[in-house]
Structures are given as structure tokens and as C-alpha cells.
Write a structure and sequence with these properties.
The protein is an all-alpha fold. It is built from 20 helices and no strands.
């Protein structure tokens, strides 16, 4: 392999480690959420996700801006060999994390019933209370993760995420099962399911603390210049506050949006509480599926920010563009086929995962298909936002996110409140939200950097994904005539689509030499596929 991909090994290798852990976490998550939904029903799953809606707002405040700021600053210090400054950055950030996490946890515990009533879901207070302590521990985990990510070491983050997922699966589902079989109390079982999430964050902190103790000795040995604690805090907050405000603003908008959805279903749309709970539960389950492909884009952004920052620090603009194009291309390779598959096979996927039929399938199918389209725009938002943040533009993404969130509220308020659209209006609002943010982000990128080439990054994945979608649709139609089982038909269509897409990626030479560096034994794979510069 040439020197070029070797230089990018840190970025692509980090993305590969995080992507692998994400795959493991999502598989574990599927083994958790799908049986959990069947155990506690759509209404119970609605209580479960209501707690997460509230938690997400506080989580964004606590963990969005500071890890990005840590990653950028540590990457700069690493490039300049300033080990003592890396330690100072970590310790300063940890104090801020502890303060935010402590206040957030106390607020959720004290106001759990009031928050549940505010969300028009009074039975979700058990889940909110059970989730509250995890906010403190996830803040501590985020400090450790930002420390390692800034140095390009994604392994501790990956392993800790797997620990969290395992605890959620075995302890959370176990608690929910015990409560349902002992007392048959759905709201309490939703809270029991979240106990595993909280315990998982505790285990994650213990593991990360052990890893940090060993790594910190090597960092201190680097020496170098160090800023004062106040100077370090000022620089951290200058980066973190705009990002945090934007993310928190969007999450607050999402929280208000969730309240509006329930309010409009109960009001103008004319549904009773039980019907609205089920509709919201169906939408929440479809959102869980929607989040799956998007989760595989996050590793790319986490790895890209320190890599771009390091190249900018060394004024290596050629490598900056190389990393940005690679991030966008890999995003396309992952997100586009997933989005197409969800749009084409929405109904069969819901039959496979939840056994939906009749009215549930008639509602869930269009919701998931529309969310499949939203996957494309959400993935573009994640990558373009990361690029802007790496370039030091932390304010523009904030403004764009808030504008998109306001668009979402307006669209949802209008559509969900009509009997014709009802809950189907919510994913339409999601598409409009992320489409607007995507357009605004690309306009902003033109002002600060050279835009990655569309032809080199996204054109071929778009063509391959469209052909794959046609193959999936055709395969499902053919297999359904031969096999009566809808679940087997769906699995067969997914396998056929996957094989077609893999063949197209090879035939169309979508994978580049740089992309091969992401894979284990990348040199051998490149030679086997005859991938050249």
C-alpha cells in the first residue's frame, strides 16, 4: 500500500474500531429492545422512550459540546507534543462534567412525576426515576472518552459502550421480565428495563477509570507547555458552549415536539389516551430502527474531528480534504443502502421485527419508509457538522440545527393534528428538519473549506443503492410467491439486496485504496479486489 492510506490509518482505523463496537452494541440493543417491546407492549415502550426523550435533553447539555472541545484541544496538544496540557484539559473538563451530571441527576429524580405529566405520559415516571442516576455516570464516562478520542484511541470508548449494552440487555430485560411476571405492571416494568441502563453506565465508568490510570502516566511523560487552569477552562468553554447550546436547543425542540405530538393526537386528531399511547409507541419503535444506520455514522464523525484538527494544526490542507472526502464517501457507502432498504422494505421489516399486522402495519409501514429517507439527510448533517466543528466553526451548526428543529415543530403541529396524517406527520417533519439542516450546512461549508467532490464521494453509492433497492423489491415479490412466511421473505430479500450491493461496490470500484485501510488486512483486501489509486 502507498504512503497515502498509511497516513490515514489513524482516522480510518479509529472509525473501524468504533463501527465494530457500534455493530455489537446495536445487535445487543436489538436483542434488548425487540423482546422488550413484545414484553411490555407499544404503550410500555412509549413510557420507556418518553424517559429517554427527557434524558436526551440533559444528556446533550452534559455530553455534546465538551467531548468535542476536549477532542479538538487534546488533538492539537498531541500534535505539538504537549502532554502536560492534555492532562490539564482532562482534569478541567472532568470538574465541569461532574457539576453538570450532579445537577441533572438531582433534577430528574426530584421532578420525575412533574416531567412525566409535562410529557402527557404520567405513567412514565418510573422510567424517568430509574434513568436519572445514569446521567451523572455518563458525564464521567464522556470525560474519559473525550480524553482517549482526542489522542485517536477509540478502543476504550468502544469497549465501554459494549459493557453498557450488555448490562442493559441482561439486567434491564431481566428486571422488566421479573416485574411483568410478578406484578404485571407495565409502567413499573418500563422503569425496571431502564435500571440496566443505569447500572451499565456505572460499569463503564469503572472500566474507563482503570484504562485512564495506565494511559495518564505516558501522557505526563511527554512534558511540553501547559496553560493555566483558567485559560484551559476558557478555551474549552469557548468551543463547548456554542455546540452545547445548539444540541440542547435541538433536543429541547424535540422534547417540545414529543409533547406536541401527543397533544395533537389527543386533541384535533381525536384519539383517546390509549390510542395515542399506541401510535406514539409505534412511532418510537420505528425511530429505534431509524437510529440504527445513523449510529454507524457517528464513529466516522468522532474519528474525523481529531484527525482534521491535527492536520489543520500542522497546516496540511491536502490531508484535511482527504479525510473529509473519505468521511463523506464512507458515510455514503453505509447510509445510502440502509436508507433505501428501509424505504423499500418498511412493511416486511416491521413484520419481521415486531410481527405487526393490520392497522399497526398500515400505520408503521409508511412511518418507517419516510424515516428511511430521513436517514440520508441525518447522516449528511452528522458529517458536515463534524467537519465544521473541526474547522473551528461551532456557531453555524448551532443555528442550522435550531432552524431545522423549528421547521420540524411547525410541520408536525400541522400534520399530526389532522386525522388523515396523524402520527405519519411526525416522520415527514423529521425529513423536512434534516433536509433543511443539510442544505444550510453545505452553504456554510462553502465559506470555510473546499467542498468534497460529489462525483468522488456520493455519485457511485447513490447509483448502487438505487439498483440495490430495485433488487430488494423484486426479490421480495418473487420470494413471496414461493414461500408463505413473510418473515422468511423479508430475510431472503435483505440477503439478496446485500449480495447485489456488495457486487455493485466491487464492479463499480466504489471502494478506494483509502477505504481499504478501514478493514482488517487492508493491504491484502486491496490486492484481492485490485483496488488501486
Amino acid at each position: 500500500m502507498s504512503d497515502k492510506p498509511l497516513k490515514k490509518q489513524t482516522f480510518l482505523g479509529g472509525a473501524a474500531v468504533l463501527a465494530l463496537s457500534t455493530a455489537v452494541v446495536k445487535i445487543i440493543g436489538a436483542c434488548y429492545k425487540i423482546p422488550l417491546g413484545n414484553l411490555i407492549g407499544d404503550a410500555g415502550f412509549g413510557y420507556f422512550t418518553t424517559a429517554y426523550d427527557i434524558y436526551s435533553v440533559l444528556l446533550m447539555v452534559a455530553t455534546t459540546g465538551l467531548p468535542v472541545a476536549m477532542s479538538r484541544m487534546i488533538s492539537e496538544s498531541q500534535a505539538l507534543g504537549q502532554g502536560r496540557q492534555i492532562r490539564r484539559i482532562f482534569r478541567t473538563a472532568m470538574l465541569v462534567f461532574l457539576a453538570i451530571g450532579g445537577v441533572g441527576t438531582a433534577g430528574m429524580m426530584i421532578l420525575c412525576m412533574q416531567l412525566a405529566r409535562f410529557m402527557n405520559s404520567p405513567n412514565s415516571w418510573y422510567a424517568i426515576l430509574a434513568l436519572a442516576p445514569s446521567l451523572l455516570f455518563i458525564c464521567i464516562s464522556s470525560a474519559y472518552r473525550g480524553y482517549f478520542q482526542g489522542q485517536g484511541n477509540m478502543v476504550p470508548t468502544s469497549v465501554s459502550q459494549v459493557f453498557e449494552a450488555l448490562c442493559k440487555l441482561f439486567i434491564g430485560f431481566g428486571c422488566a421480565w421479573f416485574i411483568m411476571h410478578r406484578w404485571n405492571n407495565v409502567p413499573m416494568a418500563a422503569g425496571g428495563a431502564i435500571v440496566g441502563v443505569t447500572i451499565g453506565t456505572v460499569v463503564s465508568v469503572i472500566y474507563l477509570a482503570i484504562k485512564h490510570r495506565a494511559a495518564d502516566r505516558h501522557v505526563e511523560a511527554l512534558g511540553g507547555e501547559v496553560l493555566t487552569r483558567s485559560e484551559t477552562a476558557k478555551k474549552l468553554l469557548a468551543i463547548a458552549i456554542p455546540i452545547t447550546l445548539g444540541s440542547a436547543g435541538l433536543q429541547i425542540i424535540n422534547l417540545i415536539d414529543a409533547k406536541i405530538i401527543m397533544g395533537r393526537l389527543l386533541g384535533p386528531a381525536g384519539f383517546i389516551q390509549a390510542e395515542a399511547d399506541v401510535l406514539k409507541g409505534i412511532y418510537n419503535f420505528c425511530q429505534t430502527i431509524f437510529n440504527l444506520p445513523c449510529a454507524f455514522i457517528t464513529p466516522i464523525t468522532i474519528s474525523a474531528i481529531p484527525a482534521i484538527t491535527a492536520h489543520l494544526t500542522l497546516k496540511d490542507h491536502k490531508s484535511v480534504l482527504m479525510v473529509e472526502e473519505s468521511a463523506l464517501r464512507i458515510m455514503g457507502l453505509l447510509a445510502l443502502p440502509c436508507a433505501t432498504g428501509l424505504a423499500v422494505l418498511a412493511g416486511p421489516i416491521l413484520q419481521l421485527l415486531r410481527g405487526y399486522t393490520g392497522a399497526e402495519l398500515a400505520t408503521g409501514g409508511p412511518v418507517l419508509a419516510i424515516l428511511g429517507i430521513a436517514v440520508i439527510f441525518n447522516s449528511l448533517v452528522l458529517v458536515t457538522t463534524a467537519v465544521m466543528q473541526a474547522h473551528g466553526d461551532v456557531k453555524t451548526p448551532v443555528i442550522n440545527l435550531i432552524i431545522g428543529g423549528i421547521v420540524k415543530i411547525i410541520v408536525n403541529y400541522i400534520l399530526v393534528g389532522t386525522r388523515t396524517f396523524n402520527i405519519i406527520g411526525a416522520p415527514i417533519g423529521t425529513v423536512c428538519c434534516y433536509a433543511v439542516i443539510t442544505a444550510l450546512n453545505f452553504l456554510a461549508l462553502r465559506r470555510i473549506t473546499t467542498l468534497p467532490s460529489f462525483r468522488r464521494t456520493l455519485l457511485k453509492p447513490i447509483v448502487a443503492s438505487a439498483l440495490m433497492g430495485a433488487a430488494a423489491y423484486g426479490a421480495y415479490a418473487v420470494i413471496s410467491r414461493v414461500i408463505g412466511s413473510q418473515k422468511l421473505c423479508c430475510l431472503g430479500a435483505i440477503c439478496a439486496a446485500g449480495l447485489v450491493y456488495l457486487a455493485l461496490v466491487i464492479v463499480m470500484k466504489i471502494i478506494t485504496l483509502d477505504d481499504c485501510a478501514l478493514l482488517p488486512k487492508g493491504d491484502k483486501i486491496a490486492r484481492l479486489l485490485r483496488v488501486k489509486e
